Amino acid sequence: MSTNFNFKNILLVLTLIITTLVYAQEPPLKLGVAGLTHGHVGWILGRGQQPDMNMVGIVEPNQELAIKLSKEFGFSMDIVFSTMDEMINMVNPDAVAAFGNIKDHLKVVKVCAPKGIHVMVEKPLATTYDDAKEIKRLADTHNIRVLTNYETSWYKTNVKAIDLYQQGEIGELRKVIIRDGHKGPKNIGVSSEFLEWLTDPNLNGGGAITDFGCYGANLMTWITKGKRPKSITAVTQQLQKENNPNVDDDATIILTYENEMAILEPSWNWPIGRKDMELYGTKGAIYSDNPTQLRVRLSKGYSDYTEETFLLGEREDPYNDPFAVFAAVINDTLQLEPYNVYSLENNMITMEILESAIKSAKSGKTILLN
Q: Which CATH architecture has domain 153-316+334-368?
């Protein structure tokens, strides 16, 4: 009798625990998608159902494009709407991810911020520094999170490179070289909808100088923990006039700081796609070659050095998925470090660097920041 009583009690306790856990789980956040023309939109369309955040609505006035992608990714056209207001009224999202042109980022935040809807945009934050300042004002006024997503945010090699530098592995930092880009949007075969605005200086802010220059500016702001450069000097070229008649497709940007210099080389003319970074210190160098390989060289005399190679995997959850990061930040289960790559404070400086670089290239002069 006593054994049976204890067994029933145990079953009852287990049932209560399981029930409590089930009901204690927060339902997935509801995500709206603003635009389908960005080539990165497949990251969310192909994500599938997850416990943290799920797509519930899409805004895309181009019905032909929406139908094509619905067949490719299997979402229902019932969740596709023509306007932001219509989508918000019908599905009441907690957050919105912007996958249209860069100029529309401000429009998305203008609609979402007063309603308390958090926003994540694809890089860069905006097309102009003025637009970026208005985005920040809206975010601060309405207390919403605005994140900017960069593919390089996911690279474990970049994280390890910065950790090694901050631990003093290569001494004091002196120079950073960051190269990003590919053969060019048309040459790699991006969609016509993507190409149309990517090569429009009004909708994209520029060509390669903005499309890939933002990566280096963003990483340098992270490395320096929010330092603004003292000066920005940039030179642009148009090497594929037939493909990019209205924008630059190659740029070199030089940033000077009190004790460091950064050389950013964004281009649509690299023969091989790349996103790599080199950190040079007083004792050695760190080479973040790609998402998985990192090398550390330490000086031994004039030209000799030791070299260690690290082969790394993906970042740990939630950093291996930008939407998981977005959900965790909204739910306050993840506190991102100051001036991290996603942060608004970082991307405000990134936008200031980009706009200054564009001014420098157009004027042929170095731009000095206060």
A: 2-Layer Sandwich (3.30)
| The two structure tokens encoding residue 12 | 């009852």
The β-bridge relationship of strands 250-256 and 118-122 is: unpaired
What pTM did the predictor assign?
A: 0.92
CATH superfamily to which 29-149 belongs: NAD(P)-binding Rossmann-like Domain (3.40.50.720)
Q: Give the span between the Cα atoms of 152 and 157, in whole angstroms.
A: 9
| Amino acid, single-letter form, for residue 101 | N
Tell me the pLDDT of the chain (370 aa) as tens digits: 444 546 555 555 554 554 444 334 679 999 999 999 999 999 999 999 999 999 999 999 999 999 999 999 999 999 999 999 999 999 999 999 999 999 999 999 999 999 999 999 999 999 999 999 999 999 999 999 999 999 999 999 999 999 999 999 999 999 999 999 999 999 999 999 999 999 999 999 999 999 999 999 999 999 999 999 999 999 999 999 999 999 999 999 999 999 999 999 999 999 999 999 999 999 999 999 999 999 999 999 999 999 999 999 999 999 999 999 999 999 999 999 999 999 999 999 999 999 999 999 999 999 999 8
Extract the tokens encoding 100: 């249209």
